[in-house]
Predict the structure.
Amino acid sequence: MTSLWLDTSPVVPTDAVAALGAETPFDEVVVGAGLTGLVTALLFARRGRRVAVLEARSVGAGATGNTTAKLSLLQGAHLQRIRRNTYQAVVDAYVAGNRAGFDWMIDYLDEAAVPVERRDAFSYSTTRKGLALIDDEYLVARRAGLPVVKEFSLDLPFGTTSALKLPDQAQFDPMQVVASLVADIRALGGVVVEGVRVTGVSASNPAVAHTASGDVVGRRIHLTTGTPILDRGLYFAKLTPQRSYAMAFEGAGQLPGGMYLSVDGPSRSIRSRGDLLLTVGNGHGVGRAESESALVDDLTDWTLSHWPGARRTHVWSAQDYATPHHVPFVGWLPRGRGRVYLATGYEKWGMTNAVQAALTIVSDVMGDPEPWMTTLHHRATTPIAMASGVGSNAATAVWAAKGWLRALSRRHAVIAPPEGVGVVALSRGLVPVARSTVEGRVCSLSAVCPHLGGIVTWNDAERSWDCPLHGSRFDADGRVLEGPSTRDMTRRG
């Protein structure tokens, strides 16, 4: 699966690993070359800091290159979720932070000459229950200062019960932004290196990022990797990993003029880019779907039922993380001695939250925070948010037990599964083995996730091993794709 953005991405020049071997430490070492990490690095570089960005794969390869690329302050029914789990001052601060991120990105797109389309954003409902959600979102959004208006007629080929409209939002190609950010960072003396996976961090003075290519030293380390790669602070247990599917279609006929997101289930996001129709949906817990291929087929069928004659050109998936209170975790990492920072938990709204997180991290370090940053830092954890976190961890425990019970009750009946199939079962002894066949090659691995011992499941759409506990993902050969694991799966004979 390759996203539309990665498939058409410009070549992004980066630096060789040798550029990390300077004698003097960097001021700021940023881990992850997605939108959060690159904006963070650029903001520091503009303030005269010596910056290094370390990326395990390639720039934009994670959430940024697989996003729907909507820059919007209207975010489905997200504000009312924050309000239910916190209080109005946090909603106000969240909106202020996202507005700051929105404004910064619009200004940057203009100065970097990256094409941007201004579109109206819509949150819509198709059911009676969704109608109530629209009414609630309207009240919370208006109270937070967003000029939303109600709409009852949309240019969509199916019926809706109600909608909210926020004018003049934006969409763009995220990889064009990535290319521009990398170029600007390097022009200011920063270093951006691909293919360097950070496996650990020492919060010493100076701090050290440990990699297979050697240690990288900096005054501070900033973790902008989707989910933190360090277990300190237990953020992996506070986050719910989510995965959803996106598609591009040509020949869809009349295309929608705005950016649309449903508030009732199953969630559907709809917009156009040029002559292509983009649809997104079928979000699910990582590693917890019965069949990811069935989810892809379902979204395809839904799209074709409303845009008959359309032809699918791309299909891809994206991973994001939700927090119990639906507000991102941004700031210094506990037990990091003020030298390790993190940003995570955007819940699929990374275009604005990535920038507000970068603004927050840099302001924290430089000592000039905005009032909305202070409010988000000092929010209290309400009983409802605590209950949500407990429920999420209870579900994780259930999946841990389920995985082991399933594995221990099965024996491998065949040496080689059919093409495209992965199977978890006992092979010899009591060690579960994950065995798959991809492109005619059989690979056998320990089925135990190297992060915290969950049993992986086979993703039949992406041909990967996914951990249902905390969202680590591995390719068919066991190489880590997504954290929090920093280690590959173990080979078995």
Notes: The domain at 397-482 is CATH 2.102.10.10 (Rieske Iron-sulfur Protein). The radius of gyration is 22 Å.
